[in-house]
């Protein structure tokens, strides 16, 4: 179901190396070796691996928060530059609901923030856009006036998703977006992401140590081990017998 | 946003009597300090209004000074001067300290190191000795006092704000703002500043109490407020000449000064417990 | 190995800080009203004599050259000569240092002896039920509110009216009998230590409270360890770092010469000397005094940094990667 | 034989800024000696409060409103501090979620383990205990500080600390939640091996129903501060009798077949402001009827399990067709 149009997102030989230790004996720590990946519009690529596998680092490269030491990261064929952010082409949903929204701002203001930064809509249009987006993520538009402190974890994460979608981005990074939620609420958010992707056709990376959730939400899954991708395959194969033995061992834990 | 904090504070004061004591004491002193001259306390400058070095009496509740002036209105005026000077110094500290602290905490790299070194250098000067140097350079007076107070309180302010900024900057909503293209200024003013105000306010109250101590110490050494103006510290200085024969000239301003600093310390503790409650646990 | 990783940069930072302090002090003296030159040469030097003197003191050289020479002299312990006695300033400071040192050590010991136990008790009490902890907070707030010169004045008044065996003022050096010396040091020490006790009490109380919320304390309680052992083994050490910081900072302040206590009780210490020099416009002494105090302060902070690394093994440990 | 832990009608509330919040709303439970019991519940279900209450380790703002807990016949709520302390030392062992925060960062591991053991053990005894906990370089581990260990190794040390005095009851609160998947199984193997070796009862608190059912003999499902279903693991998982248990199984990712849609539980977890007079799950329950919103369901025996639901029989019948557990 993923069309074969130009990939929205492309990693071309992307590698990241951290420098560590005091000035006189710098040591190089390769966080990401060399990654080649492409993600088409409307497609979610799952990125799984244990802590230290480099999956979060790769996510940060995709958000422009880290510059790759090697290779290139392209959005719609263009190398990353800050202007892309202001257009609202890119957004992120992160792990901890209690810090997803600025506790001192009303939720409506936080959700509208990407629009305010892009600055092409007036206040009334922004307010209207927020109201419809809240409804779309299953929240009463009246919640726009509330402070994050008054919402449950699941509701705050829905707000974060509303904010991520408000500028119709081309690409969203979900970094452990459901890991801190309870099982019953997790399913709500996973289904919501699926529906919204079908409707908005954004490309997405779903980073998580939760193999079951990743398998459910992703079209394809990349398994990372110590900075390298050991296997990329459609999610379906992870329901029975993935090829690489590390993937097999990993998925055996949720058999 | 302020409503959120004040509601919590209101609820808190009902439970914490110490905080309430501090707040009431501070309010009384502020009213005296600001509206003192409107109150019927006598004319602070009327020389010979009473006997020289007269003991406290009904006519002169705090006695009279070496020129026979009623001491009560002079002390009340002293409260005003002390608070005003300390407040000016602390506001300067708060503004500079918050901006530099936020910049250091959020921008990392060279900015962080530069600001940290500036803080270290200012921190290395013991307040009173720096006061002597400042008095030598710009001459004793209110300006010198303000410079000394700010120099003594800014480093700690920068360190506190920097450490809070470091933790707030890692929060998800800041990362999200950056990803959606927010400029550095916007991140600092819209996202960081409101979330570090709590820690800044707590540090402000402690800076205010330290500032009143330094101001009165400088004035006591004759380096702070210069005559005819008189802060509590200067009154202490003038009074100490007659310490053994007219002790009220020293004890009155001394006690009032202690009460003022105490009220701020109690208020600071209460605010800190309201905004950042440290409920330990029993070891039983 | 870990300590060297941690301390080497600290040493560099301390050097940079001291350089900054020296630069600030050097420049500030250049801003003295009436021009530094007039002060050094004295207001009466005129015409040719003045030019000759300017030549000799090198005041016409570019400012950074003067600074270079001044700094170089400083590094060799030459803090310049007093403008009044024209003798090296450093000798006078070394002569008076033991007096200020004694006052500082006495005050610090008294403050630690009372402030720390009270702070630990107040932190533990606040942790448990009941308002006992609030007493600690009240004492802390009270102590921190009464400046030392107010207490000092009160002592002078009381002890001069009814001299209860303690002499006010008139310092007796240590070598002329311990008890006589102590008799003159008790009052300044106590008036200084009231604030110090409050400072240590509040710092320790907050540190203990913060440690009590740590997970490993709950784990120790869950293992049924005796409260006494939990405090001894776990609480004290984890609460030590903020206490070490405040000890080093406050001791640095005291070693800079508690100006007011020395002036009030006429203790011939470093602080008194700098203050009286200011009145005689002997700026060389003021300059040297501030530099020495700052130098002591920075080195004490270095000692504190070293103590952190000993107390908390995480400090200075190489940070792990991603 | 007397139960290792006997909990009767236990109610706990927390004093918060915004009034009282009830964490436990009447718990009745007996934990048998040597039993492996899993307590499943989401955040706010009260499972951690229950686990901590067994050792009277509740937060300062907790208030025990009713009921009692007897550990080896001794009341945890009314006994004096010294008795409870000895109880914790000799009978109870706790394993916490985050191993790094359960160890003193400023003290070497060997010393911390020695402090937890009986009397003053020598290094050989300490290293023996570390080996028992599955650490293959006991000497190096004993000399290192907590921050120098990996998550898995640190949790092994925490387990060693918990079994140092051969407790009768081991309580593990989300023991593997903060660990990587591959280490998780090995840590659980260790926990169950320690239980078998010492004959202690093991209580595991977790949000992971599959893991609990897979490993524990008996399972308890908690919701809104109450036990909603309790019974033999396979029975409860195979044919759940409470709507919440059934919905939990259907909502959890990992049970579904490829391409099958997950069935989320609508609404948000409850916050109890007072003991509930109705069924706390009613607002989110597909089978809720008028009776559920009026009458608090009593806990009763239904087909080998104990369930707190008025319509347990119908649910069990309907769920009989629930997916078989892929063994």
UniProtKB/TrEMBL annotation, chain A:
CDD domains associated with the record: ABC_NikE_OppD_transporters
Keyword annotations: ATP-binding, Nucleotide-binding, Transport
SUPFAM superfamilies hit by this protein: P-loop containing nucleoside triphosphate hydrolases (SSF52540)
PANTHER family, sorted: D,D-DIPEPTIDE TRANSPORT ATP-BINDING PROTEIN DDPF-RELATED (PTHR43776:SF7), TRANSPORT ATP-BINDING PROTEIN (PTHR43776)
Full protein name: Oligopeptide transport ATP-binding protein OppF
Pfam family, one: ABC_tran
Alphabetical list of Gene3D superfamilies matching this protein: P-loop containing nucleotide triphosphate hydrolases
UniProt GO MF annotations: ATP binding; ATP hydrolysis activity
Highest taxon listed in the record's lineage: Bacteria
Domain ABC transporter per the UniProt entry, residue ranges: 11-251
Family in the record: Belongs to the ABC transporter superfamily.
GO biological process, one term: transmembrane transport
Stretches that traverse the bilayer: none
UniProtKB/TrEMBL annotation, chain B:
Coiled coil: none
Gene: gsiD_2
Keyword Transmembrane helix among UniProt keywords: yes
Transmembrane annotation, as ranges: 18-36, 79-107, 114-137, 143-161, 200-223, 235-262
GO cellular component: plasma membrane
Organism: Oceanibacterium hippocampi
UniProt xrefs under Gene3D superfamilies: MetI-like (1.10.3720.10)
Keyword Signal (UniProt): no
Domain ABC transmembrane type-1: 79-268
Bilayer topology: Multi-pass membrane protein
Compartment annotation: Cell membrane
Protein's UniProt name: Glutathione transport system permease protein GsiD
Record key words, sorted: Cell membrane, Membrane, Transmembrane, Transmembrane helix, Transport
Upper classification of the organism: Bacteria, Pseudomonadati, Pseudomonadota, Alphaproteobacteria, Sneathiellales
Family to which this protein belongs: Belongs to the binding-protein-dependent transport system permease family.
Listed GO biological process terms: transmembrane transport
InterPro entries listed in its UniProt record: BP-dependent_transpt_permease, MetI-like, MetI-like_sf
Matching Pfam families: BPD_transp_1
TrEMBL record, chain C:
GO molecular function, one term: dipeptide transmembrane transporter activity
Gene3D superfamilies membership: MetI-like
Superkingdom to which the source organism belongs: Bacteria
Domain named ABC transmembrane type-1: residues: 97-304
Keywords annotated in UniProt: Cell membrane, Membrane, Transmembrane, Transmembrane helix, Transport
Record keyword Transport present: yes
The keyword Signal belongs to this UniProt entry's keyword annotation: no
Transmembrane stretches, start-end: 12-32, 103-124, 136-162, 182-201, 239-265, 285-311
Compartment annotation: Cell membrane
GO CC field: plasma membrane
Topology class, membrane: Multi-pass membrane protein
Family: Belongs to the binding-protein-dependent transport system permease family.
Name of this chain's protein: Dipeptide transport system permease protein DppB
Species in which this protein is naturally found: Oceanibacterium hippocampi
TrEMBL record, chain D:
Keywords tagged on the record: ATP-binding, Cell inner membrane, Cell membrane, Membrane, Nucleotide-binding, Translocase, Transport
GO cellular component: plasma membrane
UniProt GO BP: peptide transport
Residue span(s) of domain ABC transporter: 5-249
Keyword Cell inner membrane included in the entry's annotation: yes
Matching InterPro entries: AAA+_ATPase (IPR003593), ABC_Ni/Peptide_Import (IPR050388), ABC_transporter-like_ATP-bd (IPR003439), ABC_transporter-like_CS (IPR017871), Oligopep_ABC_C (IPR013563), P-loop_NTPase (IPR027417)
Main localisation: membrane
Pfam families on file: ABC_tran, oligo_HPY
PANTHER family: ATPASE AAA-TYPE CORE DOMAIN-CONTAINING PROTEIN, OLIGOPEPTIDE TRANSPORT ATP-BINDING PROTEIN APPD
Highest taxon listed in the record's lineage: Bacteria
Similarity comment: family membership: Belongs to the ABC transporter superfamily.
Signal peptide: none
Originating species: Oceanibacterium hippocampi
Keyword Transferase found: no
Subcellular location, record wording: Cell inner membrane
Membrane topology: Peripheral membrane protein
Molecular-function GO term, any one: ATP hydrolysis activity
Protein name, per record: Oligopeptide transport ATP-binding protein OppD
């Amino acid at each position: 179901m993923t069309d074969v149009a130009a990939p929205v997102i492309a990693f071309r030989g992307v590698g990241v190396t951290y420098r560590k230790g005091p000035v006189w004996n710098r040591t190089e720590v390769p966080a990401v070796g060399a990654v080649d990946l492409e993600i088409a519009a409307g497609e979610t690529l799952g990125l799984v691996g244990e802590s230290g596998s480099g999956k979060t680092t790769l996510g940060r490269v995709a958000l422009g928060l880290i510059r790759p030491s090697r290779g290139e990261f392209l959005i719609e064929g263009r190398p990353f530059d800050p202007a892309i952010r202001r257009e609202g082409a890119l957004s992120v949903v992160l792990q901890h609901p209690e810090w997803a929204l600025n506790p001192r701002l009303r939720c409506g203001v936080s959700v509208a923030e990407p629009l305010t930064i892009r600055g092409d809509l007036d206040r009334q249009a922004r307010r209207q856009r927020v109201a419809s987006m809240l409804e779309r993520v299953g929240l009463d538009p009246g919640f726009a006036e509330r402070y994050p402190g008054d919402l449950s974890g699941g509701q705050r994460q829905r707000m974060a998703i509303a904010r991520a979608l408000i500028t119709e981005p081309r690409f969203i990074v979900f970094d452990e977006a459901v890991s801190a939620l309870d099982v019953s609420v997790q399913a709500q958010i996973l289904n919501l992401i699926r529906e919204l992707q079908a409707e908005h056709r954004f490309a997405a990376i779903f980073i998580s140590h939760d193999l079951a959730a990743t398998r459910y939400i992703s079209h394809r899954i990349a398994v990372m081990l110590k900075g390298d991708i050991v296997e990329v395959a459609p999610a379906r194969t992870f329901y029975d017998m993935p090829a690489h033995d590390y993937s097999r061992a990993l998925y055996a834990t949720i058999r | 946003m302020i409503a959120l904090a004040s509601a919590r504070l209101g609820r808190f004061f009902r439970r914490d009597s110490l905080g309430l004591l501090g707040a009431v004491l501070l309010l009384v002193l502020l009213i005296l300090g600001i509206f003192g001259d409107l109150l019927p306390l006598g004319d602070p400058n009327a020389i010979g209004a009473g006997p020289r070095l007269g003991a406290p009496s009904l006519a002169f509740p705090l006695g009279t000074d070496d020129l026979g002036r009623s001491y009560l209105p002079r002390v009340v005026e002293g409260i005003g001067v002390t608070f005003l000077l300390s407040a000016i110094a602390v506001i300067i500290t708060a503004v500079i300290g918050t901006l530099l602290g936020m910049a250091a905490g959020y921008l990392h790299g060279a900015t962080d190191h530069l600001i940290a070194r500036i803080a270290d250098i200012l921190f290395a000067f013991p307040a009173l000795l720096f006061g002597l140097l400042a008095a030598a350079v710009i001459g004793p007076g209110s300006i010198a006092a303000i410079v000394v107070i700010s120099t003594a309180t800014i480093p700690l302010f920068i360190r506190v704000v920097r450490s809070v900024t470091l933790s707030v900057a890692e929060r998800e909503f800041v990362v999200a703002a950056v990803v959606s293209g927010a400029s550095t200024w916007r991140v600092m003013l819209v996202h960081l500043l409101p979330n570090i105000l709590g820690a800044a306010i707590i540090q402000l109250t402690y800076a205010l109490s330290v500032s009143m101590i330094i101001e009165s110490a400088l004035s006591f050494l004759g380096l702070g407020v210069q005559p005819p103006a008189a802060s509590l510290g200067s009154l202490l200085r003038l009074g100490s000449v007659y310490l053994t024969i007219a002790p009220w000239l020293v004890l009155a301003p001394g006690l009032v000064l202690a009460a003022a600093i105490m009220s701020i310390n109690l208020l600071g503790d209460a605010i800190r417990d309201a905004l950042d409650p440290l409920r330990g646990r029993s070891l039983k | 190995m870990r300590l060297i990783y941690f301390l080497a940069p600290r040493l560099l930072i301390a050097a940079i800080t001291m350089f900054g302090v020296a630069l600030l002090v050097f420049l500030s003296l250049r801003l003295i009203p009436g021009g530094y030159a007039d002060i050094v040469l004295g207001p009466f030097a005129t015409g040719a004599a003045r030019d000759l003197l300017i030549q000799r003191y090198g005041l016409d050289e570019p400012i950074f050259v003067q600074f270079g020479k001044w700094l170089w002299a400083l590094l060799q312990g030459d803090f310049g000569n007093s403008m009044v006695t024209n003798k090296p300033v450093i000798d006078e400071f070394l002569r008076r240092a033991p007096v200020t040192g004694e006052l500082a050590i006495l005050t610090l010991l008294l403050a630690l002896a009372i402030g720390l136990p009270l702070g630990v008790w107040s932190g533990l009490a606040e942790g448990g039920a009941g308002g006992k902890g609030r007493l600690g907070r009240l004492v802390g707030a009270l102590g921190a509110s009464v400046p030392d010169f107010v207490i000092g004045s009160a002592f002078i008044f009381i002890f001069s009216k009814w001299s209860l065996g303690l002499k006010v003022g008139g310092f007796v050096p240590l070598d002329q009998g311990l008890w006589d010396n102590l008799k003159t040091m008790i009052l300044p020490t106590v008036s200084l230590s009231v604030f110090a006790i409050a400072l240590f009490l509040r710092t320790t109380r907050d540190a203990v409270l913060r440690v009590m919320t740590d997970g490993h304390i709950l784990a120790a309680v869950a293992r049924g360890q005796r409260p006494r052992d939990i405090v001894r083994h776990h609480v004290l050490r984890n609460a030590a770092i903020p206490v070490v910081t405040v000890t080093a900072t406050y001791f640095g302040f005291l070693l800079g010469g508690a100006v007011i206590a020395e002036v009030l009780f006429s203790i011939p210490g470093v602080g008194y000397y700098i203050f009286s020099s200011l009145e005689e416009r002997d700026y060389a002494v003021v300059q040297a005094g501030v530099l020495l105090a700052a130098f002591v302060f920075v080195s004490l902070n270095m000692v504190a940094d070293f103590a952190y690394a000993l107390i908390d093994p995480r400090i200075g440990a190489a940070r792990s990667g991603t | 034989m007397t139960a290792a832990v006997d909990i009767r009608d236990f109610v706990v509330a927390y004093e918060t800024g915004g009034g009282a919040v009830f964490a436990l709303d009447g718990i009745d439970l007996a934990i048998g000696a040597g039993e492996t019991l899993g307590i499943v519940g989401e955040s706010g279900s009260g499972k951690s409060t229950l686990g901590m209450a067994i050792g009277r380790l509740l937060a300062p703002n907790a208030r025990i409103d009713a009921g009692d807990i007897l550990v080896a016949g001794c009341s945890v709520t009314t006994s004096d501090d010294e008795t409870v302390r000895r109880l914790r030392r000799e009978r109870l062992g706790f394993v916490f979620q985050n191993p790094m925060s359960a160890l003193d960062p400023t003290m070497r591991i060997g010393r911390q383990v020695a402090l937890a053991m009986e009397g003053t053990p020598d290094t050989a005894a300490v290293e023996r205990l570390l080996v028992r906990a599955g650490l293959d370089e006991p000497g190096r581990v004993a000399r290192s500080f907590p921050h120098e260990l990996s998550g898995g190794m640190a949790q092994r040390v925490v387990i060693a600390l918990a079994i140092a005095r051969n407790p009768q009851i081991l309580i593990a609160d989300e023991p593997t939640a903060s660990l990587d998947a591959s280490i998780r199984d090995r840590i659980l193997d260790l926990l169950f091996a320690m239980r078998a070796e010492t004959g202690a009862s093991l209580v595991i608190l977790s949000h992971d129903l599959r893991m609990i059912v897979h490993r524990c003999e008996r399972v308890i499902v908690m919701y809104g501060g109450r036990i909603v279903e309790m019974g033999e693991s396979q029975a409860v998982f195979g044919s759940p009798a409470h709507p919440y248990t059934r919905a939990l199984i259907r909502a959890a990712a990992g049970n579904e077949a490829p391409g099958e849609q997950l069935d989320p539980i609508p609404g948000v977890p409850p916050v109890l402001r007072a003991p509930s007079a109705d069924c706390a799950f009613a607002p989110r329950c597909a089978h809720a009827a008028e009776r559920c919103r009026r009458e608090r369901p009593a806990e009763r025996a239904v087909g080998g399990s104990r369930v707190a639901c008025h319509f347990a029989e119908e649910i069990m019948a309907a769920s009989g067709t629930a997916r078989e557990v892929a063994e």
